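B., you asked whether I could sanity-check this one before it goes into the benchmark set. Here's the sequence:
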Amino acid sequence: MRQNAGATANYTTSSASQGAEQNNRGRRPWIRLARPGREKSVALWLIGSAGITAGVMAMGAYVRLNESGLSMIDWQLLGKNLPNDEEEWMREFNKYKTTPEYQQVHYNIDLEEYKNIYINEWIHRMMGRISGLCFGGGALFLAMRGSLGAGGYMLTIAVSALGFSQAFVGKWMVESGFKEPETENKTPRVSPYRLSIHFTNALAIYTLCLWNGVRLLKKRTNSIVQRTPEVRRVRNMGVATLASLFLTILYGTIVAGNDAGLAYNTWPKMLDSYIPDDYANVNSLKHLFEKTGVVQFNHRCLGYVTLLMSLMTYRKSKAPGVPKGVRKLAMGTLHASLLQVIIGIVTVLKHVPLHGAMAHHANAMAVWSMLLMLLARIK
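And here's what the prediction gave me:
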């Protein structure tokens, strides 16, 4: 009788487990990124694509910071080769001489100096095209092997559409630098608004690839954390921190677009006060995005808020019942956020050297990535 009862209980438990498994497999099949057993290859493709995108974004930041972005006048969807000889280089240089940036900023550069900034922009554009080929080629390879689920095809279409539009957004952004500036700051440069859209589009591509790749990899290893009350509080605070970080990064592109990092090179005060005098002249919404002192102050405040929220996320992760892996990622996010504030302060005090600004960009991406990985681990 006991054996029969035990067998019945085991059969009932096994049936329930199988039923639950079948139920999970059948739930929303249209969002399944990979077919069973192919999760690792699809995850590695997505994470690799995110890494390539991060490289393109880093090169884009370098191009903006060393003022190379307006050196190429022509734009072609499939790209163009570098000039072959001095005559072709001179032809490109003469085109550049017609732009406001050359006439007001780079009027004293020679042909060799022009070649350097031209090559920087050319590399950035080609990296963008290569990243698209890598993503598309990977998708085609996985599709031919039958590795992608319906959700994988949908994700491929979404990322491809963003990547294709990014090319035209970049063209639209660069065109703004060939006109006389319409913002408060009259130095010839690309529109900070268009720059922020260009960056946000790239960040969306990076986020879609990294989030889904990490999520898929964690599901494969059964390391997705169940959403207990303690974990839910970490998740909610993490989402709020991610939103704050997004606003901080977005405002950072406005800082870069206005060269607002050079407005005040003191800390913690901005010259003699904590709130810059520029705020006294704010009488329209656009001044919040165009007056350099105001832009830098707002970016500083958003950075402080993000650091505080990272601390709150970490404190909630210390609650009993929160898995160690989640706590480690929360701690890493806090440390990276603190480092980001320190790098920002040093960069401002040093009058925004190129290496400092690049470190600030790279570390911002590190904070974003750690927060994404933290949230991707929670069911």
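One thing to flag: Residues 226-379 form one domain. Otherwise nothing jumped out at me.
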